[in-house]
Request: fold
Amino acid sequence: MKSEISTLLADIKEQILYLQELGAENFSVELPEISFSANSKAQSLKTEVSPERLERFVPTEFDLPKLETAKPKAAGAENASTRQSLLEATKLSRLPSLPKRNSFSTNQKTEPAREIEMPKTIIDETPPLFGDFKPTLGESNETIEEIRLDIGNCVRCPLHEGRTKIVHTTGNFNADLLFVGEAPGANEDAEGVPFVGRAGELLNKIIQSIGLRREDVLVGNVNRCRPPGNRTPTLPEAHTCRPFLKREIAVVKPKVIVVLGNTATQNLLDTKVGITKLRGEFQDYFGISVMPTFHPAYLLRDPSKKREVWEDMKKVRDFLNNGTPST
Reply:
């Protein structure tokens, strides 16, 4: 009996707390007057469940009635009647039992949202919104003479200190084919003409192999001044001189550019990929097809590479004749 009363009071307390969470502040209940005989077990109930004990579980706002004695009843019936009367009187038993409430901490750390990485295959296979867009050089209102005047007696980089002559682009400025090397050598520096000497003679033969003459094409370099000791031009030196070549290309608008050697390829295309990986396939330079291939000076040192250059030049020839490279 004692444990049942304790359970009942604990449930009442929990229901009251629940109502307080809902915003209720004052509570009142009406309990019926229950009579017990002095000799029944209800008398012990009066002692065990006194108003003083209930105050530990029920707020003082509850007005608990005094218990009065009455005629004795059967022991079992008295206990059942007492429990039922208490439950009906409080009317809290009609509320559903509270589920176990989870506590939340405001100091819990939350993981940052993960960035979803799209698989590379999806990125590669997703077509551009506006199709294949490649930047172009646009229209140029300049002339080759104006570009030469702008270059003047150039002192923009340290290479001017050791040069003999500025080596400008030469040939047919209406040509469909432009050859670009990296920088002048000793012979070019002395004569002021690109690709002379042994390397120039080999280049002439390469041009003739596709049915053209030197007079039909345009020939130049990224840098116009000879580096000391024929060393490779530095990136700042190449980037200083490259805009003039780009302006010339915008004026001439050749169909194909054949870029000769690793240094010229990387400087013109602004890439770190080597010539061995790029050669043999057309690259894009502002809407102009570019064929990287080996430099004639390299072929003089390693004649076995001539076959690869010939394969590259056949693609250039077919592109000039048909608009498509050979397979």
Remarks:
- The beta strands are 35-36, 68-69, 170-171, 177-181, 218-221, 256-260, 283-285, 288-293.
- Residues 2-21 form the longest helix (20 residues).
